[in-house]
Design goal:
Layout (H helix, E strand, L loop, with lengths): L20 E5 L3 H14 L5 E5 L2 H5 L9 E4 L2 E2 L2 E2 L1 H11 L4 E5 L4 H10 L3 E4 L5 H43 L3 H16 L4 H30 L9 E3 H11 L1 H7 L2 E4 L4 E3 L2 H17 L8 E9 L2 E8 L31 H11 L3 E4 L9 E7 L13
């Protein structure tokens, strides 16, 4: 018979990652100590075990969503049964949950699994191999679920983009093409009037230039799909310094200031993320209030497994009803007479951020307080940014 301490598996998972952080929600000191011993037999080096003896303490811990797995009892001083599962799920982010309880009723196990836990273990008879196998399988299943969810969301976005492209070709690209044809016909009809022909040619040149900008913008937007996101990082403060130098002329002309109060190291492809921040900051300078010097502040803070970047300005602001619409292709809230642009910038930014596994949104409550844009990125590239962890 194989001794309990001899393991079937290596300490690493198949993808090379290790189990390094386990949260145990258990009110019984003896059971908690036993679970800890079993865990350290499997992962004797580099394992952090955080134990909480009640739901309140668990919910007060902002780091639990960063755990590799959460082991929870169903009988706690401040929670029982499915209620425990629901509250743990609400605070766990993407961390898989394994129920580890003294309740052996099959119906309770079934309800727990239907509620979304990855596994259900009974304390009586629990051994090292059983706990190890459960944790490994739970972590792999959970990661596969989130990868499938990401793939499904990416497919949905791709289908939506195809629909948008069809609408753009049918409307936005055909409009300048029709105008160009009309101007060409007028030139043909006014060949005997040099002054009229010169004016029409200038207008035709402007029209074709706009059409070229639209096509170039679409190609740049589409090319983001082919971008490769590696395990790169960037220093936010250093990047903002570079952007300040790049936009020096615009800042000087507008009398504006660009500030950054964070020097955090952030996971992201530096070139693409610099373009994202540059685009948003340039918009803040462009969409400033009349006779008010723009002030743009960039900051960042950690929230669980997420890194949240915030770009705030004192400009025109965006009305709440347009907070989602501004990320649509060729969506513009101002005419060319007010502010020049194609309406592609924020769509491109959204696509790059989502390629990083993150999200972007307008967070300002109303247009009277300027615009605040938040970007949530996962600490580790390839992992999803969690909506409940600071996005």
């Amino acid at each position: 018979m194989r001794p309990e301490s001899a393991h079937l598996f290596s300490t690493s998972l198949l993808d090379g990652s290790a189990i390094s952080h386990v949260v145990v929600l258990e009110d019984n000191d003896q059971d908690a100590e036993r679970i800890g011993r079993l865990l350290r037999r499997v992962w004797p080096v580099g394992l952090t075990i955080d134990r909480h003896d009640c739901l309140a303490a668990f919910l007060d811990d902002s780091q639990v969503s960063r755990a590799d797995v959460i082991l929870t009892d169903l009988g706690l001083p401040d929670g029982k049964g499915i209620e425990v599962i629901e509250q743990v799920q609400a605070h766990a982010g993407t961390a898989p949950i394994v129920v580890l309880t003294g309740e052996s009723d099959p119906s309770v196990a079934e309800r727990s699994l239907l509620a979304g836990v990855e596994d259900y273990l009974v304390k009586d008879g629990l051994n090292t191999d059983g706990l190890e196998r459960s944790i490994r399988h739970s972590v792999v299943r959970s990661r596969n679920k989130h990868q499938l969810l990401q793939a499904t969301q990416a497919l949905h976005r791709s289908n939506t983009e195809l629909d948008n492209y069809a609408a753009i070709v049918a409307h936005d690209l055909r409009a300048p093409a029709r105008t160009a044809r009309l101007l060409a016909d007028r030139i043909r009809a006014n060949l005997q009037s040099p002054e009229m022909v010169t004016d029409l040619i200038d207008r035709l040149d402007d029209c074709l230039g706009h059409l070229e900008q639209l096509i170039s913008g679409l190609l740049e937007f589409a090319s983001v799909n082919d971008a490769t996101i590696g395990e790169a990082h960037f220093d936010l403060a250093a990047m903002v310094d570079e952007i300040r130098d790049d936009l020096a002329a615009d800042l000087e002309k507008s009398g504006g200031r660009l500030e950054c109060d964070s020097s955090l190291d952030i996971a992201g492809e530096p070139l693409l993320m610099k373009q994202v921040l540059s685009n948003i900051i340039e918009n803040s300078i462009k969409y400033r209030r009349p006779d008010v010097a723009p002030i743009v502040t960039v900051s960042a803070e950690r929230h669980g497994r997420n890194m949240r970047l915030t770009i705030e300005d004192n400009g025109m602001g965006i009305e709440p009803e347009y907070h989602e619409r501004v990320f649509g292709l060729f969506e513009r809230l101002h005419t060319d007479q007010q502010v020049e642009g194609l309406g592609l910038g924020l769509s491109w930014c959204q696509k790059v951020v989502e390629l990083h596994g993150g999200s972007i949104q307008v967070a300002a409550p109303d247009a009277d307080h300027g615009t605040t844009i938040t970007i949530s990125l996962p600490h580790r590239l390839g992992a999803p940014a969690l909506a409940g962890a600071g996005s």
